[in-house]
Write a structure and sequence with these properties.
Layout lengths: L3 H21 L4 E6 L4 E6 L4 E6 L9 H31 L16
Antiparallel strand pairs: 1-2, 2-3
Subcellular location: Cytoplasm, Nucleoid
Subunit structure: Homodimer.
Protein name: Nucleoid-associated protein AWN68_12805
């Protein structure tokens, strides 16, 4: 028989674990590179840009467009990595709380 009180307890526990996992996302840092490492971007698990490093060799007016393109590529690369790390953190934090329901991926909620 379905135990509603037990299920509600699991939902509350999951909410608590999800909040805890979300708070940890700020501390996940991933760095993406472009142009063989000439441009590096670091983001956190909340998809906020933390820093951008640009090699001095790219710092000329002629290379402005290249620097812009490489910066976008590095940020997108870092965001992709941070997304994977964030989903893994959410998965670890909620593991074992709710039954494994096919098609229900809590990591995709954020």
């Amino acid at each position: 028989m379905f135990d509603m009180m037990k299920m509600m307890g699991k939902v509350k526990e999951m909410q608590s674990k999800m909040k805890e996992a979300q708070d940890k996302l700020e501390y996940i840092h991933e760095t993406g590179e472009a142009g063989a490492g000439m441009v590096k971007a670091t983001v956190n698990g909340k998809k906020e840009v933390i820093s951008i490093e640009i090699d001095e060799a790219l710092m000329s007016k002629e290379d402005k467009e290249t620097v812009q393109d490489l910066t976008v590529a590095a940020i997108n690369n870092a965001l992709e990595k941070a997304d994977i790390s964030a989903k893994e953190e959410i998965r670890k934090s909620t593991e074992g709380i709710m039954p494994n329901i096919p098609g229900m991926d809590l990591g995709n909620m954020f």
